[in-house]
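> forwarded from #structure-qc
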């Protein structure tokens, strides 16, 4: 009888202990709700002045490092004629003025046309029509010392009895060679319109004002009239090179705001957008004061996103606000949790944290 009483007493003690442990666990258990926010906000600035081009990005877009965000229009420099690039002195980031001070040009191009000639109507046939020269007309030239050396040319300028021509094609003609000019390809004397001397076409300098953003040619390259050679911007680039006028996403992240406006002028260093880095998000929970005693900085908690209830995320309490966020009676304090990296986390999501 005595032993039975002892057993009952032991069982009762165990039950009370379990009940107390359960009560203590219930007291220590905390469940709080919150919203995912950006833990950091960074600004993207215009690298140089210009007009903002069309762009497709929007607030809230998730973007990878290196993706193009905006285009700021550059000043293009095109080839004025067909030829060969013989020298390129400018590199991305260079001041055009500095390069030109040293080399007189950003680059040099030798024209496909190798020779020109300064001519007069001296020696022309006596027919008056052969002394009236027309800009743009095709003509034929031949060496006065060797009739096997000949070519085709075009009149490029006329001034009184003088005129200039450029040689479009030639056969073994020589620099400084004396020539006669004819209207007919049979070089008949009655079609002679004068004489002159061949000179070399000098390489042409490519110049610009501003700073070099991009170089689109290399030495030895054949170019045609209208080909893009350089892109120039008005401001020093502060390390930005190439990109063909594109402003790129500096790291993985989410666009928070856009201040750039397509078609409008923007100044260098003006803000274009803000973003949150991909790994810089936090959960902020407004916690009533009667629950605050169960939460401490450094506590590990399990977070469940409302949209992904079956995929818990680990989090750590990193901040407890020192002032209440409530204004209508009572008190509530923002508790901030740092979340582990997770592909599902989106700014603005609702979530629950449990300790």
């Amino acid at each position: 009888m005595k032993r039975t009483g002892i057993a009952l007493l032991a069982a009762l003690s165990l039950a009370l202990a379990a009940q107390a442990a359960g009560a203590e666990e219930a007291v220590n258990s905390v469940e709080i709700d919150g919203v995912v926010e950006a833990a950091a906000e960074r600004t993207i600035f215009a690298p140089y002045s210009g007009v903002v081009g069309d762009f497709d990005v929007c607030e809230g877009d998730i973007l990878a490092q290196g993706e193009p965000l905006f285009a700021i229009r550059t000043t293009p420099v095109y080839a004025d004629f067909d030829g060969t690039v013989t020298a390129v002195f400018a590199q991305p980031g260079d001041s055009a003025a500095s390069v030109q001070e040293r080399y007189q040009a950003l680059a040099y191009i030798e024209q496909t046309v190798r020779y020109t000639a300064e001519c007069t109507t001296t020696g022309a046939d006596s027919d008056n029509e052969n002394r009236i020269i027309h800009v743009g007309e095709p003509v034929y030239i031949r060496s006065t010392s060797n009739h096997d050396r000949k070519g085709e040319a075009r009149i490029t300028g006329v001034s009184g009895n003088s005129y200039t021509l450029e040689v479009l094609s030639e056969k073994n003609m020589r620099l400084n060679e004396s020539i006669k000019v004819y209207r007919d390809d049979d070089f008949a004397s009655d079609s002679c319109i004068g004489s002159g001397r061949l000179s070399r076409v000098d390489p042409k300098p490519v110049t610009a004002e501003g700073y070099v953003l991009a170089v689109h040619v290399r030495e030895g390259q054949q170019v045609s009239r209208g080909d893009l050679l350089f892109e120039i911007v008005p401001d020093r680039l502060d390390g930005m090179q190439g990109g063909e006028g594109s402003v790129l996403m500096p790291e993985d992240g989410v666009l928070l705001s856009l201040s750039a406006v397509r078609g409008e002028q923007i100044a260098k260093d003006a803000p274009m957008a803000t973003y949150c880095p991909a790994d810089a998000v936090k959960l902020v929970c407004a916690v009533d004061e009667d629950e605050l005693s169960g939460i401490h900085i450094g506590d590990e908690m399990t977070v469940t996103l409302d949209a992904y209830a079956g995929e818990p995320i680990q989090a750590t309490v990193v901040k407890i606000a020192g002032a209440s966020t409530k204004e209508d009676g009572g008190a509530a304090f923002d508790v901030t949790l740092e979340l582990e990296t997770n592909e599902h986390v989106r700014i603005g999501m609702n979530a629950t944290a449990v300790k």
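QC bot note: The helical segments are 2-28, 96-103. The longest strand covers residues 308-320.
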